[in-house]
Design a protein that fits this description.
The complex is a heterodimer. Chain A is of the alpha/beta class. Chain A is built from eight helices and ten strands. Chain B has a seven-stranded antiparallel sheet with strand order 7-15-11-12-14-9-8, with no helix packed on it. In chain B, strands 2-3-1-4-5-6 form a six-stranded mixed sheet, with helices on both faces. Classes of the chains: A alpha/beta, B alpha/beta. At the A-B interface, helix 1, helix 2, helix 6 and helix 7 of A face helix 1, helix 2, helix 4, strand 2 and strand 3 of B.
């Protein structure tokens, strides 16, 4: 008997999480509420069972997330009995930063990247789990599982520590930190198969449903609240849509779909000819934009 | 593989998809051998390049591609912006694709000379290596280097992909000549499972399916080779070993040991031994979030619960008692140096194994290996990308297997204490026990200085007496009391030493003498360290005890005679040894068919028949205190 690929991936992720807890002083798990976070959270519940995960979850809230995401987040935390820290960049809020008024680049930088750095500094976390996968995007495919960050949270792709076998060097100087990606070797398909096999709850936005949308630059944007500026006379249309990734609602493209079950979703993904990040507005500013953001401290 | 097939699979039979196996492999070759093109081709032909990725690929190919108006597959995998400008891959990149039966993780590893370390990084997790050769150039220095690293990292399977066959008119003679030459070389460096495939990554020949251009080739296409290589054997046939990663204590009622099984199989009820302490117990539960298991195997991450409350912490290894990993603080290993700062013998580095970090230094660089010629060369240091065979000395013993036996228990990295950088990867060849490997080190701090630091006078408390007289029990109590007073102690127990230091010795008279001589030398070293050692051995011969006394400085040897009659000891018989001796199952048993010579002038005599172990310990502590061994607390 040999382990299946999902059993293999699960064991690798659990090993990574335990290693962080054994070696780092003050870890945190970044919980972004999406499907990857859902899988990461389940793996954390498994890794330390019967103990609870010995670290808090943290959500950097940009104040522009889908309302259903926030409801789902609070429900999961209550059900599992885990600790959650919600951090909002109050300076950004005071300046009124938002995707409509300032554009996606400034909004993401201030509310997400700066917000994350603020939170990591405030609580003194020396290790932060993230749900990123190497198959998502080119620059991620070269990032280590244990990704070292300077005091300024910068990533230097040219001086990454070599990572051999399953031996992870967790040593850092004071003020430095490590981003740890337990799902590095998972693909989008693996994540969905695991959600199905393990019956993991996910935000309902992944399932198709009639939702009010408007079209912006060829992308369908869901009108989640009344902050969405509409052209004079513009009326949101009801369309049966769903989301492949979740983030800030004004920056997350929906697409029309009839997939209302997990097998439907997996089926649709397999015949789809676009990658999941395609729905994300922020990834399109130049071919190397993600790499640049990561160097600046974005996850 | 058509998209509809997977789609049908997803819709109708998800279970089959979940039962896929996983193969991790690396691609290696020289700068222009076409590695990235090959991976791009595998992704493209597996229908894993999606529309938006394809759009940006076509776009990039036109801007910076090297294939004119054709798609430059290399751009798919050469991700970092700097690499696009240089046109080479400079770091390890991981790619993922799957077929109906298997998921693949590919490490695209660089061919440029200065990045040997990255290739080794990719190879460390790979079960198969694809080594690319340009058919026009044949076997180059780089080919030998990459193959050597593959053999160094003991990657089990190798495919030699002879690429650019289109540029030699698919000539069988070229293929035959290169394969024959390579096979001979591969054998010489210990690569046993090698297959050679003629391909064109650019045109797709023999990549996904057999090519019409090479009718003379009857072997599998590359993808077939990847799909059928056997990954199932794994580490199940090896003895059970389990490095403890984390002690799981949610509350006072549960104490489990979490980790990933490094080899073999474990089942509830199995006897285990914890290393390095060598304490034994039994597995009572194998705990997972999904429920308790009856058995678990190599690769699974589980939590073990044991029958006894024995002291186990992160860094220990739980193993099968009959076939346990070795415990040592010195071993020989192959090192690959990975950083600009050269290796310095005798500088302390941190050595990290699968679950443990200890201080270590390189005591000898036996020789370097020239990765191009494979020649052994003398040297004093290792610089980046150099391989050497070294002896290492550790600050504390660790449990290990050789790298050949178990990759997880036989590998380590070295970490720089100042920069925290990972400076080397290491593969353990074997432990060192032989005297010729142990070099006397110049001492700058002497015995007095060490004892002062410990606020005690070094001593060797030598417990002698028949088996069953109570030596070990009293010795343990004494050590506990000394520990509570914050004295620095070490215990040398007959049974334990026989399992390690003296495991090559039996029970003949000459072996018994040698046994005691070694213990004596060891106690002397302990005294040098300023320790109070507590030695508990039958040590039946007066002459040998006298020999140990003479090794030590006056006053250091404290002979404790635990006096109990043979009848009393035989009636206690705590280990059932007297019964066996009476039945003739044990030969040369002290008191029966081997003599015991009682001490004539012991420092302390314990009347074992009439005092309790506690009283005996009190008596010894009193002696130590009144004779100045223990300073006032």
């Amino acid at each position: 008997m040999s382990l299946s690929h999902l059993e293999n991936l699960e064991a690798e992720s659990i090993h990574i999480m335990r290693e962080v807890v054994a070696e780092c002083e003050n870890p945190v798990m970044l919980y972004s509420i999406g499907k990857d976070s859902a899988v990461m959270l389940r793996l954390a519940m498994k890794a330390f069972y019967p103990s609870k995960p010995p670290f808090p979850l943290m959500h950097v809230d940009t104040t522009w997330k889908f309302r259903e995401m926030i409801e789902f987040r609070d429900r999961m935390v209550a059900e599992l009995g885990v600790d959650l820290i919600v951090h909002i960049n109050q300076e950004g809020v005071a300046q009124g930063i938002g995707p409509f008024s300032h554009g996606s680049a400034i909004h993401t930088d201030v509310m997400k990247t700066q917000g994350l750095k603020q939170a990591l500094d405030k609580f003194g976390f020396d290790a932060a789990f993230g749900g990123a996968r190497r198959d998502e995007e080119k620059s991620r495919s070269k990032e280590r599982i244990f990704s070292f960050r300077s005091k300024n949270h910068r990533w230097d792709p040219k001086s990454q520590r070599p990572e051999m076998w399953s031996l992870y060097n967790c040593r850092i100087h004071k003020g430095e930190s490590i981003r740890v990606f337990p799902l590095s070797n998972w693909t989008e398909l693996d994540v969905w198969q695991y959600i199905q096999a393990e019956d993991i709850p996910i935000v309902p936005l992944y399932y198709a449903k009639e939702r009010p949308v408007v079209e912006r630059d060829g992308t369908l944007i869901m009108v989640d609240d009344d902050r969405m500026p509409l052209a004079p006379g513009e009326v949101p249309q009801m369309k049966k849509v769903r989301f492949r990734t979740l983030g800030c609602y004004p920056l997350t493209g929906a697409f029309e779909s009839d997939a209302t079950t997990l097998p439907d979703i997996i089926n649709e993904m397999l015949v789809s000819r676009t990658s999941e990040r395609q729905g994300r507005v922020i990834d399109k500013d130049g071919a190397a934009s993600m790499e640049k953001k990561k160097q600046e401290g974005y996850f | 593989m058509a998209t509809q097939t997977i789609a049908a699979q997803a819709a109708g039979d998800l279970d089959a998809a979940v039962e896929m196996t996983l193969l991790r492999f690396i691609t290696c070759g020289s700068v222009d051998d076409g590695k990235s093109t090959l991976i791009g081709r595998l992704l493209y032909d597996s229908k894993l390049i999606l529309e938006d990725q394809m759009e940006s690929l076509v776009d990039d190919s036109r801007k910076v591609g090297t294939q004119g108006d054709d798609i430059d597959f290399a751009l798919l995998v050469d991700g970092l912006a700097a690499e696009r400008e240089q046109g080479i891959t400079i770091d390890v990149a991981y790619r993922y694709f799957n077929t109906e039966t298997r998921k693949f993780i590919v490490a695209d590893t660089p061919g440029h000379e200065q990045y040997t370390r990255n290739m080794a990084t990719g190879a460390s997790t790979a079960e198969l290596a694809i080594i690319l050769i340009d058919a026009r150039k044949g076997i180059l220095t780089q080919t030998r280097r990459h193959s050597y690293i593959v053999s160094l990292l003991k990657v089990p399977h190798v495919i030699l992909a002879i690429n650019k066959m289109d540029l030699v008119d698919y000539d069988q003679a070229v293929f035959d000549r290169i394969s024959a030459e390579y096979r001979e070389f591969a054998r010489s460096i210990g690569l046993t499972d090698v297959s050679c495939i003629p391909i064109s990554a650019l045109k797709g020949d023999n990549v996904m399916e057999a090519s019409a251009a090479t009718p003379w080739y009857r072997g599998p296409a590359l993808m077939q080779g990847l799909e059928t290589v056997d990954v199932a054997v794994k580490d199940l046939s090896k003895p059970f070993s389990f490095p403890v990663q984390w002690v799981n204590r949610p509350n006072l009622d549960f104490r489990g040991f979490s980790g990933t099984i490094a080899g073999g199989v474990v089942a509830v009820g199995d006897e285990i031994v914890a290393l390095p302490s060598a304490r034994t117990s039994k597995v009572t539960r194998i705990v997972t979030y999904d429920g308790d298991l009856d058995r678990a195997e190599a690769g699974q991450a589980v939590t073990l619960v044991l029958a006894d409350e024995i002291d186990i912490s992160r860094g220990d290894v739980i193993a099968a008692p009959k076939n346990r990993p070795e415990v040592t603080d010195q071993f020989m290993a192959h090192l690959l140096w990975m950083t600009d700062e050269p290796m310095l013998p005798s500088r302390p580095y941190l050595l990290k194994t699968t679950n443990r970090t200890v201080s270590a230094s390189i005591t000898a660089l036996k020789h370097k290996v020239n990765v191009n010629t494979l020649a052994e060369e003398a040297g004093r240091s290792l610089t980046i990308n150099e391989v050497g065979v070294c002896n290492l000395a550790l600050e504390a013993p660790i449990a290990f297997d050789t790298f050949a036996d178990n990759h997880l228990l036989g590998s380590f990295v070295l970490i720089d204490r100042i920069t925290n950088g990972t400076v080397a990867m290491g593969m353990i060849d074997h432990g060192l026990r032989r005297a010729e490997n142990i070099h006397w080190q110049a001492q700058t701090v002497d015995k007095d200085a060490r004892s002062r630091l410990k606020r005690q006078k070094p001593a060797v408390l030598w417990f002698t007496g028949l088996s069953g007289s109570g030596k070990s029990t009293i010795a343990n109590l004494v050590e506990q009391r000394l520990y509570l007073r914050e004295n620095h102690t070490v215990i040398l127990d007959g049974d334990n030493v026989r399992h390690g230091l003296n495991r090559d010795l039996g029970f003949t008279d000459s072996d018994r003498v040698e046994n005691i001589r070694r213990i004596g030398e060891t106690s002397k070293l302990m005294a040098e360290a300023g320790l109070i050692s507590i030695v508990s051995f039958i040590s039946p011969f007066r002459a040998e005890r006298q020999m140990v006394r003479s090794l030590l400085e006056p006053g250091e040897f404290v002979e404790v005679f635990v006096d109990a009659s043979l009848e009393l000891c035989a009636s206690r018989d705590p280990k059932g040894l007297y019964k066996k001796a009476q039945a003739g199952e044990i030969k040369n048993f002290t008191g029966f068919d081997s003599p015991y010579e009682a001490p004539e002038n012991p420092e302390i005599t314990i009347d074992s028949a009439n005092v309790s172990a506690e009283q005996a310990a009190d008596q010894i502590m009193e002696y130590l205190a009144s004779n100045g061994y223990l300073s006032e607390v």
